[in-house]
Amino acid sequence: MTETKEIENLEDIQLMVDSFYGRIRQDEMLGPVFNNVIQDKWPAHLEKMYRFWETVLLDKHSYYGAPFVPHAKLPVQKEHFDRWIDLFSATVDTFFHGEKAERAKWQGNRMAEMFLMKIQYHRNSSSIPLI
Question: What dotted CATH number matches 10-123?
Fold first, then answer.
């Protein structure tokens, strides 16, 4: 078993993000969705995720953007988000413990719930997602 540590710096964020998206890319359910959308732009996507989680967990404001908009038209359902949460939480727990690890899992759950609600709303509405 890997010894866990606290999330303290950008290198920890990169380990979390790289490990998580490595799992996503190999996952039977989520891999095709992510790989189809991201294609050959994985380095740019990972860099954006480093900045997002650095902002959320380390209070270093390096991410600016509207995270929902790129997800608005993804072909996903509740089971996709459930799988995302499972993989994300397992990744965090593999490497980390402590307050920031718990915050990461809480934030991941919160985002998944919010994104699913917004996606379902926009599928049943003629509105265009702005944020």
Answer: 1.10.490.10
